[in-house]
Write the structure tokens for this entry.
Amino acid sequence: MARIQHLLDIEGLSDADALRLLDRADVLLEEARGADTRKSSLLRGKTVVNLFFEASTRTRTSFEIAGKRLGADVINVSPSASSVSKGETLLDTVLNIHAMHADAVVIRHAAEGVPHFLARRVRCAVVNAGDGAHEHPTQALLDALTIRRAKGTLSGLTVAICGDISRSRVARSNALLLGRMGNTVRLAGPRTMLPVRADALGVGVSVHTDLASAVRGADVVMMLRIQSERAVGAVTSTAREYSRTFGLNPRTLAGAKADAIVMHPGPVNRGVELDPSLADGPRSVILDQVEAGVAVRMAVLAEACAA
Ligand code: CP
């Protein structure tokens, strides 16, 4: 049976693998809504280690819930409470976890390429939970699942991704996956937050320097937070100024299709990139994204940990 061994990025994930994971996640999401079928024994006896070197609420928690719902033992290793704080290297940390017969390591790290580096050195599965500004593959898969469930299709849509594009691993993974699936992807942001080369982000991708033109006629509007933790120096004048020019509000959203959905990977800076009335409004699918995240991570772990 076809399965992924690691999940390192969207760039290296075939369309067939992506669609199979989405189909499986769709079934798991429906099952999770039925209380009787929430817990499975598929990964009983398997061990998943969450190793997060950057802060996380959604990704770390949903990988933990996903592993536990499949019957795996899930261990969370916090760098600040581990021997990393005593100077142990990342590779030594992971080799030690590997020696304890972990079946999968889920890793988030500020340095791009860390999951790839580890995957070449360990035999257990490595799952990228976000590496620097490079990729966040499970976020793109959960966003694709959310879009497909809301729109009934994953092709032929116009998707506007708006905000701090150049520092966003979410924008990169989404542009790659959604572009490949046959959607028109518009990336919008102030010039200081746009990539030098949009064509490197995949097929069907265009760049916009004003929000209104990116949102016009869109089926999906995805807003992003300013990634100030990855910025060198100030990237915008003030939050108020940014909100005025690049924050999505009801007036700007009126240019999108009447049934356009509003997405955000979280965490949301309310009132900066997204008006609270839209974050909590009927067109917001932000919490649907979070729900889909557990299902997608279950599908990923189910394949990656399979014997
Ligand atoms: N979307 C996302 O990655 O959220 P966290 O940083 O909370 O995991």
